[in-house]
Amino acid sequence: MMITIRVLQVPEVLPEANWNQLLSQVSSERRAQASRFVRQADAYRSVLGEILTRVTLSKLTGLRPAELSFTRNSYGKPSLSHHSDVQFNVSHSGDWIALISGSTDELGVDVEKIAPIDMQIAERFFSPKESQFLAAEPDNRRLETFYRLWTLKESYIKAVGIGLSMPLDSFAILPNEREDWHCRQAGTYLFLSQRLDEGHMLAACSAGESFRASPRSLPWRIYIQS
């Protein structure tokens, strides 16, 4: 297997017939969840995220998408019920959904919509070294750097799979002399950070294999079953 990151841009509006078709491809629990969202965009992200996951993992396991079943550990990290060696992780925010898969080692991915924030939040959640690194950035790069650090840290926590029992300020992810992101406390974990577009940042984390390619963008229409 080879690590791949697939990203899917969430449409603003889905035709009702297409939406009903997509709903038929997810679990009953997901359909119930989607019906409870106040904002339709949240329902779109939730449903399309499950479909992207099912279709991708079916190709790795040889099972049909509908045959896949999932479980979660005590911290909420999902895994395949009968193929726990097939690692994956999914994230969605704003206009994008991201899925990382293709390894037997731990994987994590995080995507965040970039929005103005109070930089003092860094002092609460970042390590002292990260906060110092952020404070030293030029004003015009500070917001981007904040989201790079935030998504990198989230991708690591999601890969490890123990949630916020690992405090965000207990480890630091910073660029080395080659400008690769690394974490001394994380040992062999490898990281990827890049913008998806002007308004979204993506980060990924792998416990073993390196990332050989940039995220591949897919259209939502390919998931409509004929």
- Would you identify the regions where 5 or more consecutive residues have pLDDT less than 50? none
Oligomer: single chain
Based on Cα principal axes, name the global outline.
globular
Which strand order does the major sheet show?
Answer: 4-5-1-11
Query: How many β-strands, per DSSP?
Result: 11
DSSP summary: helix tally: 6
Biggest β-sheet description: 4 strands, mixed
**Percentage of residues in strands:** 15-25%
Structure keywords:
226 residues, alpha+beta, 3-stranded antiparallel β-sheet, 6 helices, 11 strands
In short:
The chain has 226 residues and is of the alpha+beta class. The protein contains six helices and eleven strands.
Secondary structure elements and pairings:
Elements: E1 4-9, H1 16-23, H2 28-36, H3 40-61, E2 70-72, E3 78-80, E4 87-93, E5 96-103, E6 107-113, H4 121-125, H5 128-135, H6 139-160, E7 174-175, E8 181-182, E9 190-197, E10 200-206, E11 216-218
Parallel strand pairs: 1-11
Antiparallel strand pairs: 1-5, 2-3, 4-5, 6-10, 7-8, 9-10
